Amino acid sequence: MELLQNGPKDGPVYLFAHGAGADMNSEFMTQVAEKLGEKGVRVVRFNFPYMIKRAEDGKRRPPDRAPKLLAAYEEVIQHLGCPVVIGGKSMGGRMSSMLLADNALRPEEDRLAILGSACLGFPFHAPGKEPKDRLDHLEALTQPLLIVQGSRDTMGTKEEIIDYINEKRISSSIQMAWLEDGNHDLKPRKVSGFSHQEHIESAIEQVAEFVFKLQR
After folding, report:
1. What is the β-pairing status of strands 114-120 and 175-179?
2. Angle 120-13-214 (CA atoms, 0-180°, nearest 5)?
3. Residue ranges per domain, the chain?
4. Would the pLDDT of 65 be above 90?
């Protein structure tokens, strides 16, 4: 499995997984990884199996099912062999939160060295759809989880997520960092007074602070 790394080799490790439609080399993934690397975080990127196949034959295919995605994530963690903060963009973030929750339920001797998870643009539900089972693993989560979310994200607006917390459908311990008027890619409209770059920089600051706090 090919891994891309940014930042100092002795920095705290953030394992950063891609979303459903773009691989580890996308502009967003690259910019976040490089900027976090400049802040002293060792960022590791990888492609899920379906993206590896796409790179080989050029054919677009849907994401693998969750068990295969989680197995690939776990393989990278075991390969690194050190404590890590996991996370990702959209689907990659959701997989990281599922692995975080699952890991906490394992016998202590079988647990992976996961310190927490930091997600960018979390897909709480498909656009215009109900969450179905996407919230189940978040209901009783107590492990450190940061979600940086645009307030008008069609996969989970600020109002929707506040309702989920109030209804106890997701844990109140989840650390939410809101980007005003941001969409699923954290991009705000011009009328908001914010720029996309400002929101990406803010997200990077939040993730870096979270990673360093957990690695102290």
Report:
1. unpaired
2. 75
3. 3-215
4. yes
